[in-house]
Each structure stands twice: as structure tokens, then as C-alpha cells.
Design a protein that fits this description.
This protein is of the alpha+beta class. The protein has 3 helices and 3 strands, in the order αβββαα. α1 packs across α3.
């Protein structure tokens, strides 16, 4: 598994949108994204910690390789 980069919440949202996720709703700084029955909560912070990012990717059912490829198309 490759090392996850330190990215912002907006970059995470952009990458997940490239993977087919859509924004379902937002409350405060937390954005709920869905793709079919899978979903995840993205904190819209300036910097998302790597542990938090790993957890939300697991929650979304996205591998680290897929995410890194979607970050920089």
C-alpha cells in the first residue's frame, strides 16, 4: 500500500468526485459523499491527517492506489 499524501478536504472531495461520488449533503465542515450504497464523510479542513484519510477511504471502499490516481489525472 502506498503512502497516503497530506491533502486538503477540497482535494479529497475532487478526487472522490472523479471516482463517481457525489455530494449528498454538508453540515458545517463535514461533507457526506455517496456512490450507490457506499458513502463517506469528508472533513473540509485545510489539512486532512493521513489516519483520517485512510479511515474515510476504507469507509468509501476505495483503495489508496485508486485515490492517488484520481488525485492527479
Amino acid at each position: 500500500m502506498p503512502k497516503l499524501p497530506v491533502v486538503s478536504g477540497a482535494e479529497v472531495v475532487r478526487a472522490l468526485e472523479r471516482l463517481g461520488f457525489v455530494i449528498a449533503r454538508q453540515r458545517g465542515s463535514h461533507i457526506v459523499m455517496r456512490r450507490g450504497s457506499c458513502g463517506c464523510v469528508v472533513p473540509n479542513h485545510r489539512e486532512v491527517k493521513t489516519g483520517t484519510l485512510a479511515g474515510l477511504l476504507k469507509q468509501a471502499g476505495v483503495s489508496a492506489d485508486e485515490f492517488i490516481d484520481a488525485l492527479h489525472p
